Amino acid sequence: MRNWRGPRLMLAAVAAASVTLLVSATGPMALGQVPDVRVGVFGPLTGPAAADGNGCLWGAQLAVEQTNAKGGIDGRKISVASADDQAIPAEGITAVQRLLTRDRATSLISCSYSGATRSAAPFAQSAKAPMVVSYAVHPEITRAGNYIWRVFSVGAIQGNAMAVMAREDGKGTRAAILWVKNDYGESIGTAAAARFAQLGGQVVFNEPFQIGDKDFTTMATKARAANPDVIMIAGYYAEAGLLVPQLRRLGLNAPIYASDGMSAPKFIELAGQTAEGMVVSASTDLNSPLFKAFAREFQARHRYIPDSVASHGHDAMLVLIEAMRRGGTTPEGILKGLGMIDKFTGVNGTIAFTPAREVITEQSFWKISGGQFVQYKLLPYDKVK
Amino acid sequence: MTALLDLMFGPYALTLLILVSVNTTLAASLNLITGYAGQVSIGHAAFYAIGAYAAGLLFKTFGWGFWLTLPSAALMSFAAGLVIGAPSLRVEHDFLAIVTLGLGLVVQGLALNLEFTGGPYGIAGVPRISAFGREFGLWGYAATGVALAAVTLLVVYRITRARPGTALMAVREDPLAAEVIGINTSRYKILAFATGALFAGAAGSLYAHYATFVGHDSFGLGTSIAIMSMVVVGGLGRLWGPVVGAVLLTLIPELIRFTAAYRMFLYGLLLVVTMRYMPQGLLGALAQRKPR
Amino acid sequence: MSVLPQHLLNGLAVGSLYALLAIGLSLTYGVLRIINIAHGGVYMIGGMLALTLLAVMRLPPLIAVTLTILACAGLGVVFERFAYRPLRGANVIVTLISSLGLLLAMENLARVIWGPLPQPFPQFLPLHIYRAGPVVVTNLQVLVIALTLVLMAGLQWVLRKTTLGLATLAAVQNARGARLLGINIDVLAMAIFAVGSGLAGLAGVLEGLYLTSVDPSMGQMFGLKAFAAVVIGGMGSVAGTFLGAYLIGLLEALVAAYVSAGLRDVITFALLVLTLMVRPSGLLGRRVDRA
Predict the structure, then answer these.
(1) Residues of A in contact with B160 (CB under 8 A)
(2) To the nearest whole percent, how much of chain B has pLDDT over 90?
(3) B260 touches chain C (CB under 8 A)
(4) Beta A230-234 vs A256-258: how paired, if at all?
(5) Which of C169, C173, C282 is CA-nearest to residue C233?
(6) N or C: which end of chain A has fewer CB atoms below 10 A?
(7) What CA–CA distance (Å, rounded) separates C198 from C194?
(8) How far apart are the C-alpha atoms of B4 and C224, rounded to whole Å?
(9) In the prediction, which pLDDT does B260 show?
(10) Do B283 and A6 touch (CB under 8 A)?
């Protein structure tokens, strides 16, 4: 075994890599002008979750564009640096460090899923960079420390809201709960089951499915045998878009209450006719003029109606900008500003924060009617907390 | 100049160094199993996962820190290696590849579905490494990672140079002949699996205390494939192969970020082209070119 | 009201899709000893391509499906010629990594071309639902199962009655011996890749029809499951592959029905491992020689 070339080649590889890193690390550094306020956004920009990462990023960018058009913050423009994490936990850490070091971002927005956001949060905390989480739901994320804030309701709130709707609006007594096996599905499903029982209903079917599942005929058969009079689904449109038609095809016709993972036009496209009449949780009030304006602008640029991920990316940025206005653009200032936010109006509704830095906002429900989402109900926060 | 140094050795570069050293440890430990002992495994992430979950659970149950979880997680992974290595006695080559692939998926699936692993939530709040009352920063992690990778390489080197190593390679080249000259092939196959598992488990423990949580999504088939790719691209059965592979395959995706959406497409193509023109890996190709 | 017949029917339908995909894997492994993980990618391309031909170019279904099958067959031949043939005789791992690279490249290119989101698949056959007591049968389930059975019978006929088929079987038994008999392995390899990949493309179309959507990620797990079917049944045995595919389809349905949908994949792959531990060459396989 002659390996003497090994170390030398490795040295060469490391040297080449360092040089390239150095060159790329020096990146865009503008000298001698008023520096921009830079916000770093990370999320899955490639890979299977790319649609969510990009949608959220675009929502955030739109907020920046609009703010800059009105003169920015005290004459300083805001700029966005983005980093791809492919929704992989280890990549989340790298992405955040890249944004803070190479791009010199002073605050962060997570446009990513729970895994990557969770691993990144402690590093944002220890670097003292305020981070606003757009749509990752894992309850642990904000426990990383006082620099981590979230504009999205945790799963339990949404689960409670769905149960309230299923019981009161759907008049259900026997519920079937189908949830996707991850932190999102489990947190919503568990809360929905507990609240439904607490409200005097009976949960007759409660089972998970897996991300990437396509054949739900077995699950549908089993759910049908339990004879429910109301169905709750906690999942994403990719799976639910197939699950719902397969439920209906097997003759399960009970009303369906669904989580906000289905509040995207893509869901109606996938489920087609079978989506008619479904009630979907969504944190946005469709009739709000602010949302309408946002949707118009977003659609003009990206040719699709913004989904929940996009509107929360937008709100995360709006909240950050508001914090800068109130507390200044330094990380400490932004943190102070975030603490001052109360009853701020974003495109998803009013935003305030609990002492644990979780959002306080009303829960909205849409109905699918004529192949479109229409505003249906608004539940106040007090009723679902 | 100081700004440049800061960027070069700054947090971003350090996180990459940490990733590279964890990947080197994983690849070098797999190299022992596949490169030296010839036991194809595409489920190496299972040992990584076992190490990480062991660390997380030991912290949760006994409040242990990294310096206690590291050896215990490595030993647990070693024990798992003894069990998971058992199929290598029954099946070989491509069938073993499929068996280890299956085992990898089973371990990940169990992590997602069992109660004590935290199910889809995983295990939260794993503390950072600290020594002498001080919590480690990125420098500390990078140093620990490089040290772990170095120890792994050293052990692989020692094993391959000593009698066990020659025995291993004999098992790889011709199991029957090895048996005839009195080598207990079963023992060495299993030992290779378990030793490889030991270091993958140690890497898992480091990762758990770095990411500060353990979740099933870090240990999927994609991870196993990435580790195997590093070994093969660097050069199977070559001491420095995993290092070259880990450095290249960790940094290349970073360096081609500008290709945006085409990034992972190019990565896949790179694997195909490397195998097409350098089936012995980079180091193998270099060794071949050199006249002997 | 017993739901068991319904579960079995659901399992048979999915098992049929596995069978269509598994045949190509079984033949390439039997003759060339290639673990063609990229096969799942060809199946995905089949679904996506048919989507474009049907929804964007608005071709008549029969023409669109034929074109898809031909294109996938062509893709298989290209892979064989440029990625696998140069590696013949190399370490198993080398071919495996190359195959994984192809799968990654295909998936990510598809994400660029078609976007990462699932797309509704044009339902060119109107859905009919029949009820027989508690059992619900759709015409799509009947189509998937019947078409698979007919194709499998046809394939068996080709393998037993034509020169190419007999050459294939001979090569599965003993590749070196087949070469001595004057069988051109290159031609055979191309034929096998063409047929296998064409069937994978068809499976992609059927999946789109039966499960109503296609997406760039659909190939990976499905391909692995099909491979598990091949291994459980016995590599290189068409009958075994067939058996393995239906076993996995039924097992999945029953596990999801009576244990938990969450544990379905764990149990499927645990069964794979156990089968190989007890019968290292699969249920109907023989010990393969290593030429």
Answers:
(1) 1
(2) 40
(3) no
(4) parallel
(5) C282
(6) N
(7) 6
(8) 47
(9) 66
(10) yes
Chains linked to A by 3 or more Cβ pairs within 8 Å: B, C
Q: Are A342 and A139 in contact (CB under 8 A)?
A: no
Where residue B132 falls (left for φ over 0; alpha for ψ -120 to 50; beta otherwise) is: left
Q: Render pLDDT for A228-284 as a digit per residue (tens, 0 to 9).
A: 999 999 999 989 999 999 999 888 999 999 999 999 888 999 999 999 999 999 878
Asked whether the predicted pLDDT for residue B45 surpasses 90, the reply is yes
Residues in B touching A120 (Cβ below 8 Å): none
- Measured in degrees and rounded to the nearest 5, phi and psi for residue A327 equal -115, -5
pLDDT digits (tens, 9 = 90+) for A107-131: 999 999 998 999 999 999 989 999 9
Within chain A, which residues score under 70 in pLDDT? 1-34
**Helix or strand run (H / E) with residue A78:** strand A78-84
Confidence of residue B1 (pLDDT cuts 50, 70, 90): very low
Within 8 A of B241 by CB-CB distance, chain A residues are 6
Reading the block at residue B45, the tokens are 């992430």
Question: Helix, strand or coil for residue A150?
Answer: strand
Nearest CA in chain C to A251: C136
Residue C139 contacts A, CB cutoff 8 Å: no
Q: What is the pLDDT of residue B279?
A: 85
Beta strands in C90-172 (DSSP E): 119-120, 129-132, 135-138
Residue with the bigger pLDDT between C202 and C271: it is: C202
Task: Mutation target for A interface from C2, C107, C117, C225: give the one with most A CBs within 10 A.
Answer: C117
Residues 8-67 of A with CB under 8 A from B: 9-10, 13-14, 17-18, 20-22, 24-26, 45-47, 50
Distance CA B244, CA A159 (A): 49
CA closest to A268 among chain C residues? C120
Which two tokens mark C230?
Answer: 């091949």
CB nearest to A6's CB, from B8, B160, B238: B238
pLDDT of residue C281: 74
Number of residue pairs across A and C with CB atoms under 8 Å?
A: 95
Q: Look up the pTM and report it.
A: 0.85
